[in-house]
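Kindly go through the following sequence and its backbone structure tokens. Advise at your convenience whether the structure tokens fit the sequence:

___
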Amino acid sequence: MGPRASHGRISRSAEFERVYRRGRSQANRHLILYSFPNELTSGVRLGLSVGRKVGGAVERNRVKRLLREAFDRQKERVADGYDLVVIARPEALELVDRNGVDGVEGALCELMDRAGIRAAGGTAEDGSDGS
């Protein structure tokens, strides 16, 4: 794997393990967010974990796609130098079905705010509180 494979994404199991073991976690009903400062990379890297309890392959892929889209909407508001891992709980599928990307974005923003990793002025554009 070349440098392109790791740009913006956490893909290797060792990188996930480091974030799990050394990072801090925040959780709500739908998601768990692990954050770990990474001084080796500029920008923010994202890893996703969506297990079989969320649903079949089609449902899991939809949840991952909306998580990436929600993260992309907020990426500019996240402080540089973090590795983030988002774990989708089974209830994430319910959120996706009910509220789509806006609901996922609200839940993700809530956790990023609690983790203190958002840069100044980092609030959700739609004002949602993640409920």
